[in-house]
Specification:
six-stranded mixed beta sheet, 375 residues, 10 helices, 32% helix, Purple Acid Phosphatase, chain A, domain 2, alpha/beta
Length: 375
């Protein structure tokens, strides 16, 4: 048996660090990733597709996002099973209960509404653990596995959504998926594979290749490991094999730079210039060091240029500690005299002091440098 395992499409997601053009591209690429998965399922001969939660970013995404999602789902040639997750639970306001979804949903697409085993192929069952509320207060996966006895003639796949306790920083969360019941179900033969969703990083859980997160098909943040994938899973009585396939092209990159002079600024410029597929790359900078006013002015030019080209460019305030120094030589280079020179000296003093006016003073110095620098 071969099937496609995916999760966390988050259709309708917005990102505050993306401008309107990049946001539109981000939204469209999420839809295109769904279409690529449809082609992948056909090319790989998958019998069905299971999408393990958070297919929509919320139950309140706009109508266009739902309509485009349904159109993309129509590209699949095999049955697709959608599991509601914590972002799109099957509650009274669920996107899956809207007239648009019910009227336009392709006939080969099924929303998993409960844990009743679904026959997806001869001798193959899918057991879901759908979310009906954003805070269920219990382990839905373990609940779905209760009373599920091994059957020598049946292979079962569990579809669940949530954080596994072995990977969670909050082990007291009652909705965590407990690892022990999953392992027991696997080793007893009650299930052959646990298809999970929630983590946007792809990978197996606790060294067990039969418990997997596929990751988000399009990356959504800087903390994810190996996103942009979907899994083609082969399961039979002898074992399980999983192959990762790239379906998404966005990259979220961190760059840390220590700046101590103009050469360091130019090296940062070159590194940003080398980022591939800039239109689909979001960069977060951590900048540490000390620059002169003129060097800082050049840095701002670099940031403005690459901010216009990249999908997103931000400087992490929590991880940055960049100081700008102003001495008499720097003030002299501005070519200011009289009152203007005295005002610049006062602004420079504020820029060198910690306090609520420091950032405004630095911005004022940058503006002075741009206005006073010889053409």
């Amino acid at each position: 048996m071969r099937f496609l395992h995916t999760a966390d499409w988050h259709l309708g997601m917005t990102r505050r660090f993306l401008g309107p053009e990049a946001q539109a591209r981000f939204a469209d690429d999420r839809i295109q990733a769904v279409r690529r998965m449809a082609a992948l399922a056909a090319d790989e001969g998958c019998a069905f597709v299971v999408a393990c939660g958070d297919l929509f970013d919320s139950n309140h995404v706009d109508r266009r996002a739902v309509a485009r999602a349904l159109d993309a789902l129509g590209a699949f040639e095999v049955p697709v099973y959608l599991l509601p997750g914590n972002h799109d639970p099957l509650d009274a306001a669920s996107v899956y209960r809207t007239h648009l979804f019910r009227d336009r949903c392709p006939p080969h697409v099924t929303v998993i509404a409960d844990s009743t085993p679904i026959s997806v192929a001869p001798g193959v069952q899918l057991v879901g653990a759908p979310w009906h509320t954003r805070r269920p207060g219990r382990d839905l996966a373990a609940e779905a596995l209760q009373g599920l006895a091994p059957d020598p003639g049946v292979l079962r796949v569990l579809a669940a959504h949530g954080a596994v306790d072995a990977l969670s920083p909050d082990p007291t969360d009652p909705s965590l998926i407990r690892l022990d019941p999953l392992r027991h179900a696997l080793f007893s033969g009650a299930i052959a594979y646990a298809a999970l969703g929630d983590r946007h990083s792809a990978g197996e859980v606790a060294g067990e290749p039969r418990i997997r997160y596929p990751g988000a098909p399009v990356a959504t943040g800087h903390d994810q490991v190996n996103p942009g994938t979907a899994l083609v899973v082969d399961v039979d009585a002898s074992g399980t094999s999983v192959a990762e396939h790239r379906v998404g092209g966005w990259e979220f990159r961190r760059i840390e730079a220590r700046l101590g002079g103009i050469d360091d600024v130019e090296r940062l410029d070159a590194e940003l210039e080398s980022v591939p597929d800039k239109a689909r790359s979001v960069v977060r900078l951590a900048l540490v060091g000390t620059l002169s006013v003129a060097e800082d002015a050049r840095l701002q030019e670099v940031l403005r240029h690459h901010g216009d080209v990249l999908a997103g460019l931000t400087v992490s305030e929590g991880r940055s500690d960049l100081s700008v120094f102003v001495d008499d030589d720097a003030l002299h280079e501005l070519g200011l005299t009289g009152y203007a020179h005295d005002a610049a000296a006062e602004i420079a003093a504020l820029a060198a002091q910690e306090g609520p006016r420091q950032q405004d003073a630095r911005d004022a110095l940058r503006l002075l440098n741009r206005l006073a620098r010889p053409a």
